[in-house]
Amino acid sequence: MTIFNLFIYSRQGNCIYYEEWNRKNVSSNLDEEQKLMYGFLWQIKNFVQKSSPNPELEKTGFHFFRTNSYKLHFFETATNIKFVITSDPDAPDLRDLLKTIYKNTFVEYVIKNPLYTMGEPVRCELFVEKLQLEVRAHTSYKQK
Amino acid sequence: MASKPNYARIGDQVFRDVEKINAELFTLTYGAIVAQLLKDFEDVEEVNNQLEKMGYNIGLRLIEEFLARSNVPRCSDFKDTAEVISKVGFKMFLGINATVTNWDPKKPEFSLVLEENPLIDFVEVPEQYQSLVYSNILCGVIRGALEMVQMSVECRFVRDVLKGDDASELKVTLKAMLEEEVPVGED
Q: What pTM does this model have?
């Protein structure tokens, strides 16, 4: 099993952090890819919510999707910060990992960092360091 | 229908787990900030504004800590939000309980009554600063935090122990629900 990449989006919809690990296809235009991903998330979220018999309950309805070659996990906070991680298709639900990243790493080292401006790209060394530890220590992270 | 979560219990739980600091240090530090602002701006109204603004900036970030630590589920309505602020929010960050009263579904709006307020321990407001809203930072925090969860609110003190009232009361009015940011090229 393995983990491919991670996206974090601010509430304004900008990709504020991107990291890749064992990614096999190289992106030709990362910027475009990140925008496309946000558009996709926005659409599917709305679709999921609108098609529900009870739209009020479906605010966090979309959790993951899976294809033959990968699985995409999605976690969104009530403040609309979005965390996305992709892994190989047999990985278990990685939303717990995303929640841990949010709680123990993102809030502690980004939000509480007074030098960080909200909504700007994340360039906090400590955050990157802790994030690497967290992801690499996870059971789903193992190079094939 | 799922039964309502017990917010008081969540509040106690999260209060037990968060890091604490010395209450007197906290109170005195806040007092020093207010005193310095009064010196710097010399205008009481301006100090009220500055306190609100400082609170707002705190609220923008504090909400993330709140959501990450408290694990409260999504609020179903504004009344639910009021309960969460009073029982979990105030407990978690100030160690006190607030009571929700004067619920008015038409606006909608509610009041938070603070029986005790750690910010105002040892505080006496001098005669010439009677219009000072000493704890105005709290209004800012609530406004900032709720804005991050798509609620634009107005928050102000209507009763204040420092002005001789028997309790402090904050009035929170919902102005609008904000929409999520639409991606570029979509509408």
A: 0.88
